[in-house]
Amino acid sequence: MTTTLPTTAKETVSIEIGGMAIALRTQNPSFRQMIENRYAGFLGTSRSSHFEFDIDLYEGSESAPANDDLEVKIEEGEWLLQRGDFRARWNPDAGHGQIRQACSPYAIDCVLRIVHTLLLARQGGFLVHAASAIRGGKAFLFAGVSGAGKTTISRLAPPDAKLLTDEISYVRREGNRYLACGTPFAGELARVGENRSAPLSALFLLEKGLQNSIEPVGSVEAVQRLLRNILFFADDPELVELVFQSACEFASLVPIRRLVFVPDQRVWDIIR
Amino acid sequence: MMAEKYIARSSAIAARLLGGEMMVMSTADSTFFTLNEVASAIWQAADGRTPLSEIVAGKICQEFDVDQEQAQRGAARFVDELSQHGILLVSDQPLTESSPSPESR
């Protein structure tokens, strides 16, 4: 006997990152399949979703290039997110939003990142340009701009390390500690992270050098470097202040160190 | 004689004392400043009601053992720079509003 799912359930894909499930509803089967493939490992059930978005795809020439300026702002009580390849409206209180976008994985990926940054900002967490991994039950973040070594440190990870991401880390506050959660936001490795989480033990600021060493970092530099790597898109002073305070809180609770390293597996011997 | 200056902390800022250093960021353009001890004392005294000259004479010169004339010049430069970024509000009249001092958060 086969079970026929309600139409809405069949049209919906729920993506759960950091314990936050977002349902995406589209009537285009091939686009839905693309989403399912891209976010495999992070798929949840639509029933447990915290928010849902209806997606309509642009037709032909409607879409502009993805490199157009990104705009994220509150308009008429709703978040407006737009770039050349998408335009989305989202009402967090109603739990619902609409996305019009190009038939491209990059557009939905960008919308998801923005939505998570807005949600995390109110919870003391953030998305940060950092690779992250779990080893021995502890999570470690490796932050840096493009070229700093996120992909390299990820490639060098020993077999017992579980890679959460090589590009965008998800940091969630839980009481007086932080959790690092896996994300499907991949970088050069083009490999989605593992969907698991662990208490964060340290954040390392990556720097390539001639030998492996861990160096202390002053509070101001730690906050400044962290802020430089946090993803935040909204033109909203209240949320900017929240992100600033979150970075300061994080720096007061989690050790932030400079990791100078040579591209050699031995660097992982000093990470603990 | 120079006109009195009154200074107040803008509400468009985020500030935090961490590891003994005051960090201030504009929430409008994300400009980030670190204040040294003297600048931090001026910043925290910027209540909009106390004239800058009184802050310098009564607080800075007392707490940091600096020459008053030199301290007044340094304070004027500091105030000018932060006001250009909208982080401090400056007026020749008392100001009614000043954001709370980060120490009281």
A few lines on this structure:
The complex is a heterodimer of chains A (272) and B (105). By secondary structure, chain A is of the alpha+beta class. Chain A contains six helices and 16 strands.
Give me the secondary-structure topology.
The complex is a heterodimer of chains A (272) and B (105).
Chain A: H1 7-11, E1 12-17, E2 20-26, H2 29-38, E3 43-44, E4 51-57, E5 71-75, E6 78-83, E7 86-91, E8 96-101, H3 105-121, E9 126-135, E10 138-143, H4 150-155, E11 162-165, E12 168-174, E13 177-181, E14 197-208, E15 213-216, H5 219-229, H6 237-253, E16 256-261
Parallel strand pairs in A: 2-4, 4-8, 10-14, 14-16
Antiparallel strand pairs in A: 1-2, 1-3, 5-6, 6-7, 7-8, 9-10, 9-11, 9-12, 12-13, 13-14, 15-16
Chain B: E1 6-9, E2 13-18, E3 21-26, E4 32-35, H1 37-45, E5 47-51, H2 52-64, H3 68-84, E6 88-91
Antiparallel strand pairs in B: 1-5, 1-6, 2-3, 3-4
Helix pairs in contact in B: 1-2, 2-3
Structural class of chain B: alpha+beta
The average pLDDT value of chain A, as a whole number, equals 91
Work out the radius of gyration of chain A: 19 Å
Q: Beta-sheet strand percentage of chain A? A: 35-45%
Compute the number of helices of chain B: 3
Give me the number of helical elements of chain A.
6
Can you summarize the main beta sheet of chain B?
A: 3 strands, antiparallel
Could you name the ranges of chain B where pLDDT drops below 50 across 5 or more consecutive residues?
A: none
How does the helix and strand content of chain A classify structurally? alpha+beta
Reading the helices and strands of chain A in chain order gives HEEHEEEEEEHEEHEEEEEHHE
Q: Give the CA-CA distance, first to last residue of chain A.
A: 53 Å
| Unreliable parts of chain A | 1-7
Percent helix among the residues of chain A?
A: 10-25%
**Oligomerization state:** heterodimer
Q: Outline the biggest β-sheet of chain A.
A: 8 strands, mixed
Strand content bin of chain B: 25-35%
> What spatial form of chain B do the alpha-carbon principal axes imply?
globular
Overall form of chain A: globular
Mean pLDDT over the residues of chain B: 88
